Amino acid sequence: MIVGVVGGGQLARMMIPPAVALGVELRVLAESEGMSAALAATAVGDYRDAETVLAFAKDVDVVTFDHEHVPQDVLQQLVDAGVAVHPGPHALRFAQDKRQMRQRMAELGVAQPDWAPIDTADELQAFLDEHGGAAIVKTATGGYDGKGVRVVRGIDDVADWLQGAADGGPQLLAEELVAFRRELAQQVARRPSGEIVAWPLAQTVQRDGICAEVVVPAPHAGRMGAVAEDMAVRIAEGLDVTGALAVELFETEDGRLLVNELAMRPHNSGHWSIDGSITSQFEQHLRAVLDLPLGSSAMLAPAAVMINVIGGPAEGRMEARYAKALAAQPSAKVHSYSKTARPGRKVGHVTVVGDELDEVVYQARAAAATFE
Amino acid sequence: MIVGVVGGGQLARMMIPPAVALGVELRVLAESEGMSAALAATAVGDYRDAETVLAFAKDVDVVTFDHEHVPQDVLQQLVDAGVAVHPGPHALRFAQDKRQMRQRMAELGVAQPDWAPIDTADELQAFLDEHGGAAIVKTATGGYDGKGVRVVRGIDDVADWLQGAADGGPQLLAEELVAFRRELAQQVARRPSGEIVAWPLAQTVQRDGICAEVVVPAPHAGRMGAVAEDMAVRIAEGLDVTGALAVELFETEDGRLLVNELAMRPHNSGHWSIDGSITSQFEQHLRAVLDLPLGSSAMLAPAAVMINVIGGPAEGRMEARYAKALAAQPSAKVHSYSKTARPGRKVGHVTVVGDELDEVVYQARAAAATFE
């Protein structure tokens, strides 16, 4: 069993441990030498180049992804060459293009913020007028971790993007500025043959557009857990997603769940599952894309908290702080992505699982703080 | 942080996942190409050749082991060259030579079976006469997985070994045939700076001299848990063991604990900890040999059961049975060592953790049986 992963970042890296456990051979096409998933890298090259990707995909049983940026024409050439690709291009396009995603959510009847495609300043002004003078404007493609997203109160705020779109750059869309109580994320994994498994609903806290902290299960979720699972299952089936799917959600102040974003890969909101679930999202993703039976998504403890290490220590590597961090928090599971510290960069994360949420949150925050 | 592991078997393989999580660079000196730990192999060569091992050890922070067979003179050359070696040769010799081990246990006052070094047939006959006509005879060096061990009722049963010893082959020792109720194993890990952590006592079942099944915590252990931990701590400190130490124990019919064997490395009786403990024996071993603070050894559930897959399926690889095994037991954690099936060979293991021992045992046995 050979799984080819396009992209050598930390998501590919975190597929290595379950691949080792299951005896799956992992082959990574990395963007450059020395990337986070270097241990499993069998090729270095440009994922936008069809020839590079086709050569990499030779002899693998399935191709999957560390990110969603492989162009549609490259994906289609893989499919045309008879390579199993999961998720397939027909699903991935909804993770690559937010206008297509919003349109498809509307067709599926899944609750989401008011939105409109925006091609001109007039269209944006009309949307602002209808929504109290404020909106979120996004580039339809290319955004991640808060990039490609702006809060807008007048067309001048995105004059550059409007001009860019007119000049053939990324298309734009506007979304209502949702008054939300908190953000949540629902993860599922789905096999090509249809089996689907959901993890408990996660509560996520974003800072500066980057996932900072995840608590599972989301406290005081009540029936929302079932509603979120139902939404994610409908999306996974409606879009024919294979592998891991994360549905980022807003919980509105009046208690509704609205779809914010989709990710068709292991997702930051699911890193807790490495240490907190019988089957981690990374193992489940491998099983799903190989069309193997999925594992139990039950939690190993009543509460799990994951904190990202963003930026990292002045010494340049998380490892420099291990003597202090590991001594202070012997229950913390520390994950380093073998990246050099840089402001705003995700260089690792810490997870703690246990019986008492308060205690778990304290330990996880204390351990993660050691690395700042 | 770079850890060099001599030996490319499944124990080295199972160090890869925690090394990836912690950002530790693992370098393996494998005996040949395509071994179980091939993913981390940076060199292939003979661990009995000092030049090979010294070249491998260049630039690593510490050398540790997949097995205990590296000759003392090679180990000593590493130490003389300034390489950190954990466990060190002064400790490892007690895992390499059962006569030295028995002598040292006696000096430490640790309970063990009656025993005697055997150099001649007369000495063996005297030991048999003193012990009801039966004994266990072992080669002091070179034995593993039931090899180098015989039940003996007369000197003719080991005439070949006696001749071998006289001709300069492995030395021999005799041990009383212990009437035991069951076998147990106590694992600890110890840092060079002295910190030591113990896991719960494990109950082990051997078949044909090979570890077949492990239940943790050992049922109905009562005070034996504390006694076993005390023994293992005294041994680890008395022998200055660094890294993982497993103490195999007999529980006698009259309720005493006697030391059977020692292993100074991650041990089959601790594989359950990958899925059942906050810190696995493999992560703990890496932390210990790097002299990093040790992690919590608390269990993630009240019961854990590990079953070895011995031999493996007729199709040659465990993976051939995944569709059936994973579907039937979604909570089972299946570990493949990427080895081809062969009678008597450990090719993988299955662990299940949960609240109810009966249920956990059933699931683990059912999953493991799929691979036979």
3D structure, described in words:
The structure is a homodimer. Chain A is an alpha+beta fold and about 375 residues long. Chain A has 3 domains: about 1-85, Rossmann fold (3-Layer(aba) Sandwich); about 115-175, Dna Ligase, domain 1, CATH 3.30.1490.20; about 180-370, ATP-grasp fold, B domain (D-amino Acid Aminotransferase, Chain A, domain 1, 2-Layer Sandwich). Chain A contains 13 helices and 17 strands. In chain A, the strands form 3 sheets. In chain A, strands 9, 10, 11, 12, 13, 14, 15, 16 and 17 form a 9-stranded antiparallel β-sheet that branches. Chain A has a 4-stranded parallel β-sheet with strand order 3-2-1-4, with helices on both faces. Chain A is globular, with a radius of gyration of 20 Å. In chain A, about 55% of the residues are buried. The model of chain A has no long low-confidence stretch (mean pLDDT about 95). The interface of A and B includes residues 21, 22, 330 and 348 of A. Chains A, B: It catalyses: 5-amino-1-(5-phospho-beta-D-ribosyl)imidazole + hydrogencarbonate + ATP = 5-carboxyamino-1-(5-phospho-D-ribosyl)imidazole + ADP + phosphate + 2 H(+). Chains A, B: GO terms for molecular function: 5-(carboxyamino)imidazole ribonucleotide synthase activity; ATP binding; metal ion binding; phosphoribosylaminoimidazole carboxylase activity. Chains A, B: Keywords: ATP-binding, Ligase, Nucleotide-binding, Purine biosynthesis.
